[in-house]
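Weekly structure sync, notes
Attendees: PL (lead), two postdocs, one rotation student
Agenda item 3: pending single-chain targets
PL asked that the sequence for the first pending target be pasted directly into the notes so everyone works from the same version. It is reproduced below exactly as submitted, 161 residues in total.
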Amino acid sequence: MDKIQGRVWEFTDNIDTDLIIPGRYLRTFNPQDLADHVLEGERPDFTANVKKGDIIVAGENFGCGSSREQAPVAIKTAGVDAIVAKSFARIFYRNAVNIGLPVIKSNIEAKDEDIISVDLASGIITNETTGEIEEFEPFKDFMLDILKDGGLVNHYLKTKD
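Predicted structure, written out during the meeting:
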């Protein structure tokens, strides 16, 4: 999981957790039910067209709002392999890492349908469509291990023996 490459879905600033998964859908704990409604208020075409391996690229303050853990779960279950944003709400960032969803702070410019690649270990993100390259703070080995194991709980279970 050190390297990720995928098709971009572009979002703006301040995508809050209620836009990611509206409260009316929080009556379920089924991740697929959540994924079926992820980001539908912001991009009605998202759930029907998102594919495994896609990457969200957003502006400032992604995941702001409530601390609902279902927001990153819905995104990951929908097939998104990573989120790249200029900044993240602190709790969303932690919740995403806890479930094994890479979240990368970067100012890379990318539009819908661009292809970007992210090297988590070296801290290089490339817009393969435009050729733009940006650096970000590389993920530490322990963070890479958590992501590779599919999240914090899986990582703990793997390493506790």
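Discussion points:
- The longest strand covers residues 3-10.
- The two ends are 23 Å apart (CA to CA).
Action: rotation student to compare against the earlier draft before next sync.
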